[in-house]
Amino acid sequence: MSEQEREQAPVVVGPNGTPLRLEDLPSPSTRRWVARRKAEVVAAVRGGLLTLEEACRRYNLSAEEYASWERLIDRHGLVGLRITRLQEFR
Description:
This protein has 90 residues and is mostly helical.
């Protein structure tokens, strides 16, 4: 990607406050979903980098799984996405 294209690419604020571009998102082959990666996908969808359908297809997610990530972020923040904390929140 050229410098000009990179400057024109859509940018949203990521979960840690830094700019997030499409090329900054987790790889489609991601197998280990840590809280930060989940939050990056949610930020990308909310910010318009990806549609929900594109995110689900790209990461082989169900709409329900994605929706659960959103709910956990809204209710508990980034810590809510930690799998070890999941039982505490249910």
